[in-house]
Amino acid sequence: MKRIAVYPGTFDPVTNGHVDLAERSLRMFDSVIVAVAANPKKQPLFELSERIAMFKKATKGYRNLVIEGFDGLLVDYVKERKAVAIIRGLRAVSDFEHEMQMALMNRRLDNNIETVFMMPNEEYSFITSTIVKEAASYGGDVSSLVPRGVVEKLRKRFGR
What we know:
The structure is a single chain. With 160 residues, the protein is of the alpha/beta class. The protein has six helices and five strands; from the N terminus they run E-H-E-H-E-H-E-H-E-H-H. It has helices spanning 16-25, 48-58, 74-80, 93-109, 129-137, 148-157, and strands at 4-9, 31-37, 65-70, 85-89, 114-118. It has a five-stranded parallel beta sheet with strand order 3-2-1-4-5, sandwiched between helices. The longest helix is centred in the middle third of the chain and has 17 residues, at 93-109. It is globular.
């Protein structure tokens, strides 16, 4: 039986930290599905299709990694994909409280789905999509924080 994990997020935009977690998740699971959330409540900078395309480009050549969009209840999506785990990144202690609440709620909804918390590589531990967007909006160099194709998308979006 293949062990499948789902790595959900808005990924607006994908960062090197996101790519790091996706890559390292593949060491633990036979297949990983990156589930890019539509999440209109967050008012993303990039359309869902753009976010999917950026993640695909950043992980081109990764075996057993699928990137697709999703909308709705995460637990339902995980069950539909026959996955056994949800991958969540923890950058700092400040992430833990929210992630713990979400993991406990997901367990309440389906106690057969585990949540696996992963720490990013230290060099990416401070990166968030929000920080990247803010720096890029002021013309800051974010090339060491995001995959190459994302830099160009941010420059175009912010007219820089």
